């Protein structure tokens, strides 16, 4: 049992034992002020990595929690890096603002470091919390609410000739959908390879969470010549009738595609379903093809939200493991109070996107100064160093270094996290 100095002395921080899970998770639900459906709770129970889960106890009562998943996350260039997915963070209202979260984050990041994972990621219930621990906002997501009577979807080329749409049972089609998903992961930074069990998350369909919609449905887009799966969409429908006619809603859970034709065919299908008026989707990439397929993008009523926060746990490894869009040779002066092993000057050089990169400690003069949080924001290529510099968060110490590094860190595919965890 460890007793971190910054946790109140009556409290103890220790790893979870499997038998503690229910009480530990009950405390988490109290912290969040919500009760999950039995189906969702059972799934999180099955996915919990008990040996990576921490609790803070006041006597025998769990009062704080933090977990981690052993993910492999895509980074620019396509490598899948071992990544800690920080999750299930909560402190009981009776025990807040006494340093419990900070003690959990300290313990967790030390463990992540010891395991050799060079990245930690999370989605934040409140984005103001995690910057102090070195997490930077690295990806955004779009929610759309489409008045479908006001938009048409462009039909590209001979798409209709080559794509066949077929309804399938979501569970029975899951293995084929997962194979397609797995082929897409390395192509978009921020996507997570799915370990066994995680294929259940996109299928989760608790009746109490349907909000009047049907059970989950799945439509497959196949090449009609050979039946190859080129895309799929998971969605549900909610019927509604008004005096003027049908006003149903399509709730899109996921659209995953391997070709432009499949994307056009699936979005046209979803936007042309009879008896519906509105199509909603909560989580699309900011560069989703839908933005360019519709006749009137303003009618998407899109809303941007923060999504994935990234923390470089081992700066040298993390920066060496991604690709860069352009050649660069810069010395970064990195500030990192919470993980001081990262602080100092690092020389990062790469011959460009087809070459690897090296990042080593150096005594050479710095070209750019920034904190590890900004490195996290820029890491997946979705936030430029130039934008961070414009906010005063990156300082250019050698003229020209900012433009060089900003172009190299950017990436042509926007980072995106397909689902929460
Ligand atoms: C990855 C995820 O799971 S995100 C989910 C996070 N959980 C929740 O939002 C559930 C509801 N909230 C809670 O459980 C708690 O309030 C927590 C976990 C957010 C904070 O726990 P606490 O033990 O109170 O935090 P702790 O006392 O260690 O505070 C650490 C620092 O964060 C700050 N902080 C804590 N909560 C917040 C907040 N909601 N907004 C802004 N700052 C915050 C504190 O002021 C403190 O700042 P300091 O370092 O400058 O002194």
How would you describe this structure to a colleague?
- Helices cover 24% and strands 31% of the residues.
- The strands form four sheets. A seven-stranded mixed sheet has the order 1-2-3-4-5-16-6.
- It folds into three domains: 11-117, Aminopeptidase, CATH 3.40.630.30; 142-306, Gcn5-related N-acetyltransferase (GNAT) (Aminopeptidase, 3-Layer(aba) Sandwich); 314-409, SCP2 sterol-binding domain (Nonspecific Lipid-transfer Protein, Chain A), CATH 3.30.1050.
- The chain is an alpha+beta fold and 421 residues long.
- The model has no long low-confidence stretch (mean pLDDT 96).
- The longest helix is centred in the first third of the chain and has 16 residues, at 100-115.
- The two termini are 27 Å apart.
- It has helices at 21-32, 38-47, 100-115, 159-162, 170-185, 260-271, 290-293, 315-320, 372-379, 385-390, 401-409; strands at 11-15, 54-58, 61-74, 80-91, 119-122, 136-137, 140-147, 163-168, 217-223, 229-238, 241-242, 245-246, 248-257, 276-284, 303-306, 309-312, 328-335, 344-350, 357-361, 368-371, 394-396.
- It is built from eleven helices and 21 strands.
- Acetyl coenzyme *A binds next to helix 1, strand 4 and helix 3.
- This is Putative acetyltransferase.
């Amino acid at each position: 049992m460890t007793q971190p100095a910054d946790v109140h002395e009556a409290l103890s921080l220790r790893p979870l034992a499997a038998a503690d899970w229910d009480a530990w998770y009950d405390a988490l639900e109290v912290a969040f002020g919500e009760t999950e459906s039995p189906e969702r709770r059972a799934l999180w129970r099955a996915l919990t990595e008990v040996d990576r889960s921490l609790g803070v106890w006041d006597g025998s009562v769990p009062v704080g929690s933090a977990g981690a998943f052993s993910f492999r996350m895509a980074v620019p260039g396509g490598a899948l890096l071992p990544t800690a997915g920080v999750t299930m963070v909560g402190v009981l209202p009776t025990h807040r603002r006494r340093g419990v979260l900070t003690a959990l984050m300290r313990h967790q990041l030390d463990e992540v470091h010891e395991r050799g994972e060079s990245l930690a990621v999370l989605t934040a219930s409140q984005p103001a919390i995690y910057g102090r621990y070195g997490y930077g906002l690295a990806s955004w997501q779009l929610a759309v609410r489409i008045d479908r009577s006001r938009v048409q979807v462009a039909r590209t080329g001979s798409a209709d000739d080559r794509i066949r749409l077929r309804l399938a049972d979501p569970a029975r089609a899951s293995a084929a959908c997962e194979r397609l998903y797995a082929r897409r992961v390395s192509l978009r930074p921020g996507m997570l390879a799915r370990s066994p069990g995680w294929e259940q998350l996109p299928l989760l369909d608790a009746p109490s969470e349907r909000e009047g919609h049907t059970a989950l449905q799945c439509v497959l887009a196949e090449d009609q010549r050979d039946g190859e799966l080129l895309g799929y969409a998971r969605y549900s429908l909610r019927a509604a009738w008004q005096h003027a006619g049908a006003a149903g809603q399509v709730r899109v859970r996921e659209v995953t595609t391997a070709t432009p034709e499949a994307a056009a065919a699936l979005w046209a299908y979803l936007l042309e379903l009879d008896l519906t008026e509105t199509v909603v989707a909560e989580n699309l990439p900011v560069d989703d093809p839908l933005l360019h397929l519709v006749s009137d993008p303003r009618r998407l009523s899109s809303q941007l939200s923060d999504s994935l926060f990234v923390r470089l746990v081992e700066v040298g490894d993390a920066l060496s493991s991604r690709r860069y869009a352009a050649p660069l040779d810069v010395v970064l002066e990195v500030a990192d109070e919470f993980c001081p092993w990262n602080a100092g000057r690092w020389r990062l050089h790469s011959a460009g996107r087809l070459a690897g990169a090296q990042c080593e400690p150096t005594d050479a003069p710095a070209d750019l100064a920034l904190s590890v949080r900004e490195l996290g924001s820029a890491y997946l290529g979705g936030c430029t160093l130039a934008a961070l510099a414009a906010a005063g968060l990156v300082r250019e110490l050698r003229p020209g270094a900012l433009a060089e590094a900003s172009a190299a860190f950017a990436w042509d595919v926007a980072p995106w996290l397909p689902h929460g965890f």
